[in-house]
Design brief:
This protein is mostly beta strands. The protein is built from three helices and eight strands, in the order E-E-H-E-E-E-E-E-E-H-H. The protein has helices at about 40-45, 155-165, 200-205; strands spanning about 5-10, 40, 50-60, 75-80, 85-100, 105-120, 145, 150. The strands form two sheets. It has a six-stranded mixed sheet with strand order 1-3-4-5-6-7. It has a two-stranded antiparallel sheet with strand order 2-8. Strand 4 and strand 5 (about 85-100) form a beta hairpin.
Length: about 210
């Protein structure tokens, strides 16, 4: 059964956030089972420029990308603003990822914070049904489809990759592994010698 994007409206209006599930999946993401993060914005598109919808998002994004190990729900505040050209989505979101420490190679969980600001453009005019012209600034991930549904999944996926650390560390104090025996040095010192031999004297040792 398809999952539904869970958005809790924070305004005292029944139509503050018209969140719905669209048929099919037009996401441009790579292979795998992906979360459904589609929101029906038909009502907001009918309103004048400047109209705002706010809500709190809580979504299981497990499977959003095969290379990401998701450890917790994606949660946070979501805001949508009607612009002259479409809908501007801003969000402050949080989740956690499973990473591998660069020094000791142990897996660990790290919190991730996402600040999203992306404008979505309708493919058809909500009032006339006519197809809207496509501009060079539009990407497939930021299109509002013919059913007036926008999909946050690809935007969120890209935002996660942007925030990934280049050199993940379980802690800043991680001592890493012994280069000789491979013991985790944060579990205690090993008995390996740390003396570094001068390679220029190795030949003399062989002559003894």
């Amino acid at each position: 059964m398809a999952q539904r994007l869970r958005v809790t409206v924070t305004e005292n209006r029944p139509q503050a956030l018209d969140a719905g599930l669209a048929a099919g999946d037009s996401s441009s993401m790579a292979q795998g089972k992906h979360p459904n993060m589609k929101i029906n914005v038909a009502q907001l598109l009918k309103e004048p420029t400047g109209a705002v919808r706010r809500g709190n998002l809580s979504e299981d994004i497990l499977g959003i990308d095969d290379d990401l190990e998701i450890k917790s729900l994606l949660t946070g505040a979501l805001k949508m603003i009607r612009t002259a050209d479409g809908i501007l989505v801003t969000a402050s979101l949080r989740t956690a990822l499973g990473l591998q420490c660069r020094r000791c190679l142990k897996p660990f969980s790290a919190p991730v914070e996402l600040d999203i600001e992306e404008e979505f453009y309708p493919r058809v005019d909500i009032l006339t049904g006519a197809k809207a012209p496509v501009t060079q600034t539009e990407e497939e991930a930021t299109i509002i489809d013919e059913q007036h549904v926008l999909d946050l999944a690809e935007v969120v996926r890209q935002a996660i990759f942007v925030t990934l650390p280049m050199h993940p560390l379980c802690t800043e104090e991680c001592a890493g592994l012994c280069s000789q025996c491979g013991q985790h040095l944060k579990d205690g010192r090993c008995e390996c010698t740390t003396e570094v031999a001068d390679p220029r004297f190795e030949i003399l040792k062989q002559l003894q």
